[in-house]
Amino acid sequence: MASAFLYTNCTITNSTLNIVGGGYNPQKGDVMIIIDYKDTRPIYEQVVERFKALILKGVMQPDEQLPSVRNLAMELSINPNTIQKAYTELERQDFIYTVKGRGSFVSGDGKLVETRRQECLEEILRLVREVLELGMTKMELTLEIEKMQV
Length: 150
Known about the structure:
By secondary structure, the protein is mainly α. Helix content is 45%, strand content 11%.
């Protein structure tokens, strides 16, 4: 099964791809791209989400080559156009770049993590404003955050 820290909510999977090494070994830190056919989201969005998580968590390093569209499509048993759509979306979001004739690579831009942190912070602040407007006190909110023990 997949690494718990990445895929805690994926219980039923039909297709996986080992990204690191020659055989899946969670003790070595290998991770997998997992497609859940029961998920209501399109497959390309699942592929995008998985690669973004791997890149943001540092599992895939800058300038590391992604599997070719054809190989990834064969490994996951899905249409190559689906993988191409996912790669195009990842490139549009600056997570990867493509070199003509060589393939797709993880972006070396160190701003990806900082940008994602800023997006998360903005979402958190929006939600905090919303719960405060709904009558939750700052003290109650603080207590809830402290319960998380992160």
